[in-house]
Every structure is written in C-alpha cells, then in structure tokens.
C-alpha cells in the first residue's frame, strides 16, 4: 500500500512538472526544426538525391542477367539436343547468363554522377534555407508572446496603482476633501483598465496558441514559454556597413547557393544532352546450355553379320560395278546422358562489342540540346535576380533595424518624460491640486509609453536578429 502511494505521488509530481514546463526560445527552435513538416519534406528531398546518386553509380557497374526455363513436351516436337522431330514426351531445361557493360556513352555516365552530387548539395541548401525561415518564424512568434506578456504585466501593474488610488480617493471623498466626481473618474479608469487587461490576456493566449501550432504542439492549455532574460544582445553586426552585410549575405545565404547550384545543374544537363550526339560502345558476354531427358540412338554392329557389301558406283569406261564393304549396323536406343554431362556437352559462349552511332533521330537530340541551353540561360538570369532580390532584402532589413533602434531610443526618452509627468501629476493629485481626470490622462499616457517601449524593444530585437542571420550567423546561434 505504501509503495503504491509513493508511486502515485511520484507520477503526479512528474505530471505536474511536465504541465508547468516553460519552453525557452532555443527549445522551441530546436523542436520546430525536428518536427516541422516542411523541414521533414526537405529532408526527404535529400534522401531522393542520395537515391539518384546511387542510380548514377550503378551506371558504372556491368549488367548481369540470369535466365532459366523448364518445359515438358508431348507429341511431335523437335528434340533440343538432337534437333530431330520426335513423337514422344520429354522434359527439357535451358539456362543462360548474359553480361553487358557500357565502355563509352559520350561521358554521360560520369556527368550523371556529377549531377547527382550537385543535386544533393542543392537539396541541402534548400533544407538550410527552410531551417532559417522556420527559425525566424518561431523567433517572431516567440517574441510576440513575450511582448504580449510584457504589455499584460504593465497593465496589471498600473491597475494595482489605480486600485490604490480608488481607495485613497474614497477616503478623501468621505472626508469631504475631494468631490465625488473624482472618485467616479478613477472608477471609470479602473473599469477601462480591467477591459484592457482582459484583451491583453486574450492576446497572450492567442499568441501562445499560434506558436504552439507552428511547433505542431496540440496541448494548447499547458503550453507556455520562458518570458524572462530576453534583452537586446548586439554582437556588433548592426554597426557594420550595409555593403559589408550584403557581401556576407551573398557569400553565406542559401538563396544564392541554391541559385548557383541551379546554374551548375543546368550546365551539366547541357553536357549530358550534347553527349547523346556521340557514339556508344558496349561489350557483351553470353553463356547458355541445355538439357533434355529424351533417349538417344547409337549404331551397333550386328554380331551375326558384321559387314555388308554394297555397290557404290560403276566404272565410266567399262561399266564395271564398284562395290564396297561396310559395317552392318542397326540403331539401338540408349538412355539420355546425365544432367551434369549434358550441361557441359551442350553449352555455348558468345561475346563481342556493339557500336551505335547516332545519325538521325527526328531532331530529338538537337532539340534536347537547345532546351538545355535555354535552361542554362534561364538559371543564370535567376541567379542574377536572386542576387538583386537578396541585396534589396538585406538593405531593407538594415534600414528597418536602424529605424527600429531609433524608435526604441525615442520610446525610452518618451517613457522617461511620461514617468516624470506621471509622478508630478500623482503628487499634485495626492494633495488635491489636480482633478482625477487630469491624473487619469497622465497615467494613461504613462501606460501607453510603457507599452510602446515594449513594442519597440522586441521589434528591434527581431529586426536585429534578421540582420545577424543575413550576416551569416546560424539561426541556432542567435543570442537574445
């Protein structure tokens, strides 16, 4: 009984700990990279590229085919061993081995293997880009949750001040120091703040659900993140010149590497297409044998009359007959030779070379070459466009990060000013030198300044990380 109780307590403790787990940004990114469907599909593309490479390697290996057959014949048929027509029932078997090897095919086998290596590398670049995109999506969703939580904390904290002001104002109204209208104004402010808190709580829950869906986590109710310790961490990338960041992006970003690999693939496709114009030389070797269980016949000399004399011709001038003596034989049926003996007796070997020279095939090869050439030109244009797009994107991200920093710095100054104004208004309100409406407006401006600072802070953090990602810092190594 005691053991059961201890086990139940331990299981409940583990379950409670699992429910209270708070995910860090690094854990969210790692989980997304391991479970995201798009990432898994990109990993399958790499597997397919590896299979394509295996096929290309197989082109360098000789082809080997084995064949065998067994049949039973009844009635008039040709004996495969004697090649005589027989009316009988017999069992026959045959076997063969054929080997073929391509000695030269216009270097297409070699280039197919090169293409397979390039295709695998391109698939890896696409997977890297997919992981970078997923990491940014997760980071953006994560920071959105933190922002909403920070805003909720601001509203709750300021509402506590409002609650204190309600109590303080109630005392002053009861003492006759303040009009009842001031109390009603503070209570109205409290009701408005309570509504804002409810909306902020909904925003937190919605952003958590969105992040959980991005991570493919279905337990929305217990999903939560670690919302502390995330500050602005600048490794100095933002202070670099934009041209330096663009140059680093062109060297490191997967978009450019993918476009470059597509150019390489188009070039190798053109070479493969041109290879179809060259002759193909192959070698072959074949071995075959056969067996039949039909009996054979031999000529046996008659022991009673071993020879026979027969006329074999005449002398042309005299007309004299020419005779000869021959063995007197008669056919005797004998059993079929053993299976293994027949395999040796009836085998045959064939080998040689085969040369195919393409002359005319309806312009198919020429059209294939022209299509490959057009594909190469298109891939070059796509590479040029990718470089232009990346340059534009990085420049826009750089400008956005600079603007976000200025917005954050301005929000800091605005908060400092609004805090001073709020403290001044609070002091005046506490001694009755200002009314509740003016105090509420000052408090509202102070609250909005805090919320705006949170928005500017996390907006700058995200845009700063985008710049660092373009500079070449891996998504999993970004610091927050």
Structure write-up:
This protein is α+β, with helices and mostly antiparallel strands and 480 residues long. Helix content is 62%, strand content 18%. The chain has a 4-stranded antiparallel beta sheet with strand order 1-2-3-8. A hairpin with a 6-residue loop joins strand 5 and strand 6. The longest helix is centred in the N-terminal third of the chain and has 67 residues. The relative contact order is 0.13. The N terminus is likely disordered.
Query: Mean of the pLDDT scores?
Result: 83
Categorize the overall geometry.
elongated
Give me the strand/helix succession.
Answer: HHHEEHHHHEEEEEHEHH
Intertermini distance = 50 Å
Organism: Winogradskyella ouciana
GO molecular function: efflux transmembrane transporter activity; porin activity
Protein name: TolC family protein
Main location: membrane
